[in-house]
Amino acid sequence: MKEDYIFLFGWYSSIAYSIYLIPQIIKTFRVKSVDDLSIISLCLILSAGISRLIYLQAQTGLLPIKVNNTFNVLSTIILISLYVKYYNNKNKSNKDLLH
User: Fold this and answer.
1) What is the pLDDT of residue 61?
2) Residue 62: which region, alpha, beta or left (left: phi > 0; alpha: psi -120 to 50)?
């Protein structure tokens, strides 16, 4: 019985941490601006997530944590992709203004 509660807390934690980047992805996509994002922070989050993925693959069990980490790595990759896309668009717009 106690293990069931612990398992449920693990899945709750996994879901909560998995969705925390979704509002930022939606906002970035809607406003098409990355002024409030730090690429250094995103790269650190991504490198930590990839390292954790490698570590977790050697572990047995821990499915909620593996799902969470995989989703977080994918979310971070999406944010970095949006950063590159909209940062480049911003630079192109600024260059067009100068010419």
Assistant:
1) 87
2) left
Please give the model's pTM, rounded to 2 decimal places: 0.79
Q: Look-up: residue for tokens 């980047």?
A: 21
Q: How far out from the chain centre does Cα 26 lie?
A: 12
C-alpha distances out from residue 65 to 11, 35, 45, 58, 78, Å: 8, 31, 16, 13, 20
For residues 75 and 22, the answer to whether their CB atoms sit within 8 Å is yes
List the alpha helices (DSSP H) in 1-99: 2-19, 22-31, 39-57, 63-98
Give the domains, in start order, of the chain with CATH numbers.
2-98 (1.20.1280.290)
Give the separation between CA 60 and CA 38, rounded to whole angstroms: 34
